Amino acid sequence: MSAAERDKWDERYRAGAYEQRTHPTALLAEWLPRLRRGTALDVGCGAGRNALFLAANGYRVDALDISTVGLERGRRAAAERDLDIRWLCVDLDEPGVTPLPAATYDLIVWVRYIHRGLMPHVIECLRPGGTLLCEQHLDLATDSDVAGPTNPAFRLQPGELLHAATGLVVLHQYEGEKTDPDGRPVILAQLVATAPG
Predict the structure, then answer these.
(1) pLDDT digits (tens, 9 = 90+) for 132-162
(2) Cα separations (Å) of 146 from 49, 116, 124?
(3) Distance of CA 167 to the CA centre of its chain
(4) Helix (H) or strand (E) holding 4
(5) pLDDT in tens, 154-190
(6) Residue 59 · residue 78 · CB < 8 Å
(7) Cα(184)–Cα(181) distance, integer angstroms
(8) Are the beta carbons of 193 and 129 closer than 8 angstroms?
(9) What is the pTM of this model?
(10) Which of 88, 112, 121, 196 minimizes the number of CB atoms within 10 Å of its CB?
(11) Burial of 183 by CB count in 10 Å (0-12 exposed, 13-18 middle, 19+ buried)?
């Protein structure tokens, strides 16, 4: 990711982007009661809405993003709630960057951040029996006015997420329209899957 891209996200968070989105991703809220507790990673966490939810529910959380401004907003929210989260500023698009330790996490949450080359490494970071919960914008022809990126490069193709997770045991897979908790219609690919073992 270029410095310009980093600056773009910093400026968005500085201008108040997503300040009203304090709820966790609906898929995470739905599945959390069924998932084992332990260590969690929030990939592309932004201002940390999912990381905060995980920490409040007993997880030891690493929250990873490129935006220092987004991470600082998350850090302040965690301090206000007395939650201990490790906030990591990392550019996962930078060649050669592999900051994620193998076989470390019981749960990895990866929501609405497209990085097509990252999936094999994310899978390696799961402990045996650990769960990947992934939700991405989907490029699906529709007449609906849906939220999310207009550039198809930032949307997965049908079947792409499931194919990328080959080797995991699939617990849930969905592609289609959903309504976000804030009322916005979205087209999503969702996957909940566990590492063998």
Answers:
(1) 999 999 998 665 688 888 888 889 999 999 9
(2) 21, 22, 33
(3) 20
(4) helix 3-14
(5) 899 999 999 999 999 999 999 999 998 778 899 999 9
(6) no
(7) 7
(8) no
(9) 0.90
(10) 196
(11) exposed
